[in-house]
């Protein structure tokens, strides 16, 4: 009888093997949840901060006009000497609809220039989008295949960059511009870029 009780008390190796995947699953799930809730995704650092802008030329969004004049595409040479805000957007991007009024407010600031990179979008849809919300962009390049977005280090639309007068990337906002981050983060970064080199 003692032998039988002693055998029952010992853990069989196959019982331990069954517990290993369960322990790994619980550990990985915990790690995933901790990292998922680790903070603001808009604070993802960009390797391009402080570096010159990508030398990407883009054609204009076909047929796009502002003040009855054709809106030019993206020309890297046009960044020198002025603080520029670059917004990567698309008509099919739901958060882009929400940030559009804030971009129009930003466009009223004569100290800077807004440029759009229209990401994998149809020109008709892009024009309708800007017709509905207003066109804040002094230039808007059509990134039909997404290559420019890759060169700019874009994770997804929308994203916004602040470019200094020296044509270097000063700041990157991942995600939509909201009333909160507009006041607390984006405007101070723009003011910082405007103060630098003035």
Radius of gyration, in Å, reads 25 Å
Rough outline: elongated
Strand order of the largest sheet: 5-4-3-6-7
Beta strand count: 7
Which band does the percent of strand residues land in?
15-25%
Structural class: alpha/beta
Q: Calculate the terminal CA-CA distance, rounded to whole Å.
A: 91 Å
Task: Provide an overview of this structure.
The protein has 198 residues and is an alpha/beta fold. Helix content is 40%, strand content 18%. The protein has 6 helices and 7 strands; from the N terminus they run H-H-E-E-E-H-E-H-E-H-E-E-H. The strands form 2 sheets. Strands 5-4-3-6-7 form a 5-stranded mixed sheet. Strands 1-2 form a two-stranded antiparallel ribbon. The longest helix is centred in the first third of the chain and has 24 residues, at 13-36. The protein starts with a helix and ends with a helix.
Which features does this protein show?
single chain, 198 residues, alpha/beta, 40% helix, 6 helices, five-stranded mixed sheet, two-stranded antiparallel sheet
């Amino acid at each position: 009888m003692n032998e039988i009780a002693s055998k029952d008390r010992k853990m069989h190796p196959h019982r331990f093997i069954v517990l290993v995947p369960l322990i790994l699953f619980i550990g990985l799930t915990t790690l995933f949840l901790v990292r998922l809730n680790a903070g603001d995704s808009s604070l993802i650092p960009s390797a391009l901060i402080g570096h010159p802008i990508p030398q990407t030329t883009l054609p204009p969004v076909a047929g796009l006009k502002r003040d009855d004049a054709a809106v030019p595409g993206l020309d890297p040479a046009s960044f020198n000497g002025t603080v520029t805000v670059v917004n990567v957007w698309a008509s099919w991007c739901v958060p882009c609809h929400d940030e559009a009024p804030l971009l129009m407010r930003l466009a009223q600031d004569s100290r800077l220039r807004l440029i759009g990179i229209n990401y994998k979008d149809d020109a008709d849809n892009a024009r309708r989008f800007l017709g509905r919300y207003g066109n804040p962009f002094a230039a808007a390049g059509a990134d039909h295949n997404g290559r420019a977005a890759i060169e700019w280090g874009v994770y997804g639309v929308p994203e916004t960059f602040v470019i200094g007068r020296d044509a270097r990337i000063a700041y990157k906002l991942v995600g939509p511009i909201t009333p909160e981050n507009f006041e607390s983060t984006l405007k101070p970064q723009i003011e910082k870029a405007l103060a630098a080199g003035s």
